[in-house]
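Input record (one chain):
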Amino acid sequence: MLSINPKMLPRLDEIEADLIARRDRAIAEGWKGEIEGLDLTLTFLRGKRAQTRHAIQMNGTTPIDLGMPSVPART
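The corresponding structure, as predicted from the sequence alone:
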């Protein structure tokens, strides 16, 4: 599952604005397949943004990156 760093939420807003502009162009050009793809992408983006905002509210803090665990070497 992809987790979004809360610091990236403003970037998701920029991406959404770009997708909406691309969708408007696709409508003007009559690109039905492109419209469907952009609608799907917008749905996923909005869902991920809502999920991230919800996680921030539930935790009260931003997530902490614990890094990858290491496996001790065998002796």
